[in-house]
Amino acid sequence: MRALRVVGLHEDGKSIVCEDPASRTRFLLPADERLRAAARGDITRLGQIEIELESQMRPREIQARIRAGESVEQVASSAGVTVQRVERFAYPVLLERSRTAELAQRAHPIREDGPDVQTLGEVVAHSFGQRGHDYSQATWDSWRGDDGKWVVVLSWKAGRSDNRAHWAFAPGAHGGTVQALDENAEVLLNPNAYRAPRTVRALDPAKEPAVQPTLDSAPDEPVAKVIDAPIAEPDEDVEPPLPADEPEEVAEPAPRAKGKKNHPIVPSWEDVLLGVRSQRG
Length: 281
What we know:
Layout: E1 5-9, E2 15-19, E3 26-30, H1 33-40, H2 43-55, H3 59-67, H4 72-79, H5 83-105, E4 108-111, E5 114-115, H6 120-131, E6 139-144, E7 150-158, E8 161-170, E9 177-180, H7 183-189, H8 269-274
Parallel strand pairs: 4-9
Antiparallel strand pairs: 1-2, 2-3, 4-5, 6-7, 7-8, 8-9
Helix pairs in contact: 1-2, 3-5, 4-5
């Protein structure tokens, strides 16, 4: 590295003249903020200046990114420069995008049998009217893709949802043509794709037919209690109950069985309990 010596200030007052002592070759050094920071030995400021210079974009790069669809704020944030610096170069490109979006609204959508007679703006305005949307609140924009073709976008808000539809725009005779690129764009171009929602009315229980309960919707009903009772087998003879007005007949006790010969009679459990002596046979 060769050492230079300072000769003096240039006649423009913005540069420093330096000279190589060996070859007597002179050099012109801009007296910018970086030189002043280096002369002061301010290393921190030198680092900040280096970052700012590296992050700055050329005007052509700024315009290319704006034309590709980025906003001024997005370019300024990613480049680390002020919005004012980007706006100076982005303004003509933003006008170009707005003009292209206007031209695309006059283009004709491509159908299966060829270009539509109506323009894109007319078809979209009719679809918005069917859906009850405010077409005046929708916004149009455009940008150029990597393939050099223009893409047109329509943005609108329905309720709490933000919606967007995209078309490919090809300028040409009679306004050019547009072709849908997503589902929203296809639906807006198809007038038969929308069905008006049915109105909801209150149901009158007195006029509406009863709905059969299902397993999930059946009301809780009292369950009959089951009484445990002996069930007669099919082979058993079950006598029908007597009428209530007829007295119930008392069955006579069966004759007591006699004991075998030469064997004592064993008294029954009733005789023992009542203290009755059994008769001997």
